[in-house]
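Q: Focus on the shape:
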Amino acid sequence: MNTMLRKSVLGIAGLAFTGGVFAGPIAAHADARPVEGKPAAVATVQGAQSKITLNDEQTANAKAIIAATKKAGLPERAAVVSIATSLQESKLENLGHLGDRNDHDSLGLFQQRPSSGWGTPEQITDPEYSTLAFLKGLKQVDGWQDMPLTEAAQTVQVSAYPDAYAQWEQQAADIVAHNWNS
């Protein structure tokens, strides 16, 4: 092996070892579990996870979110963040006016509000429009791809329950993994 190649191989091996020495203790104590056999869209899932059984309408809405994410030219991770957000906000149901149970004038899959500039009631209750509006906000969050899902979602949504999005990450990742290529 020539000297230049040997030095390159040894240098890479040294970096890998050093990274393991420093990252190992941190990773060993992280409050997150690795997601086994999942796409790169999810690196870790934080905290206890919730899961619901989806009906046909909810499944169609999840597929609409995935289609809108692809239309926006964004990766699977954006679809995971969007679906987890919608699971928290509406359980993937396209909410109309809820009367006394309504949070102000929140509507649609993401409980977006016309009075907050998300669009008209008709627009907000259109799954493609509401997803694209959410994704527009997500794209404005610096580093959203690398931050915990709940932080990315909260930065866009500004919810009274900022940590609630994390509980849906595993189900959202499963939905995206199952439907992204279909």
